[in-house]
Design brief:
The chain is an alpha/beta fold. It has ten helices and twelve strands. Helix 1 packs across helix 4 and helix 2 crosses helix 3. The relative contact order is 0.13.
Length: 295
């Protein structure tokens, strides 16, 4: 059964489905409409704009390069409609809040949010581990906790403070390579380190290590848990946040003759969500917890 709606959106959503599925048959199935209806929608859109939008061949149907701006517009409309449907008709503190977190803080933050759900059982949570920085401006997440700001004017940021960093290693590494438990920057180049690779927001740590002479990264990863385990296994020295390591047994802090860096931490959320009660509930809980942890 075909969905009713504005002609523009009905046409654009077919173009979007065609871009994703590369055939009118598959696009129609995805939208629950017939192939002929999908073809008519594309024809109507091409007629309205006065130019071809798709290329048909034996290998499939593809959207013309100069029509990709319409695909992007359709994605924005789809994202906004999805967000509106999710927000409508829900009680004040009921409904879904999607939170994006770095894996360094995902365990304690999940515990905090579970505690919050015990008080507000109507609250539903979606917790995303940030393998990449999700786009808060496009409502890929309602709230993000991160170490950098978005450039979008649609995103509001709350500065929570700065997270201190420290150098840590397993006792086995200290016993083998650092009996005094103190490291001179002049000696960085002869020590083993574990480092970040392709992890959003970790550039400050790698820049500091390399600027102070770290050269031998015996293991790199885009997972905090992999780096933590490597450090625990005595593979090398890690530069990590103090609050994270504080909750981990088995690592020793290493004194160093240099000023250690710190990284900022922000709560980011879409401007249109600032008055949604369930979002404010989660925002305020995360704000309080972060400030307590950084004291």
């Amino acid at each position: 059964m075909e969905n009713a709606g504005s002609p523009l959106w009905d046409d654009l959503r077919v173009l979007l489905a065609l871009h994703r599925h590369r055939s009118l048959l598959a696009a129609g199935k995805a939208l629950g409409i017939s192939t002929s209806t999908a073809a008519r929608r594309i024809d109507a859109l091409e007629a309205a704009l006065g130019r071809p939008l798709v290329h048909r061949s034996n290998g499939g149907t593809s959207v013309e390069p100069d029509a990709l701006d319409l695909v992007a517009l359709a994605e924005q409309i789809e994202s906004r409609l999805r967000a509106i449907r999710r927000d409508e008709g829900e009680e004040a503190f009921s409904g879904t809040v999607r939170v994006s977190l770095a894996d360094t803080i995902i365990q304690p933050t999940t515990k905090l949010l579970c505690d919050l759900r015990r008080l507000y059982p109507g609250l539903l949570l979606e917790i995303l581990s940030e393998a990449r920085l999700v786009d808060v401006a496009r409502r890929e997440a309602d709230i993000a906790v991160r170490g950098s700001k978005s450039s979008s004017p649609a995103v509001v940021h709350r500065a929570l403070g700065r997270v201190p960093l420290g150098l840590y290693a397993a006792p086995s590494y200290v016993e083998r390579r650092l009996r005094a438990g103190r490291l001179k920057t002049a000696d960085f180049e002869r020590h083993d380190f574990v480092g970040y690779e392709g992890m959003p927001g970790q550039g400050t740590k790698m820049t500091w290590l390399e600027a102070h002479g770290a050269r031998r990264f015996v293991l790199r990863s885009n997972s905090h848990f992999a780096l933590l385990e490597a450090a625990l296994q005595g593979q090398g020295i890690a530069l990590m946040s103090e609050p994270t390591v504080r909750s981990t047994a088995g690592l020793v802090r290493i004194e160093v003759d240099a000023e250690l860096p710190s990284v900022p931490i922000f709560l980011a959320y879409h401007r249109e969500l600032r008055n949604v009660p369930r979002v404010r509930l989660v925002l305020d809980a995360l704000d309080r917890a972060a400030r307590d942890a950084l004291r």
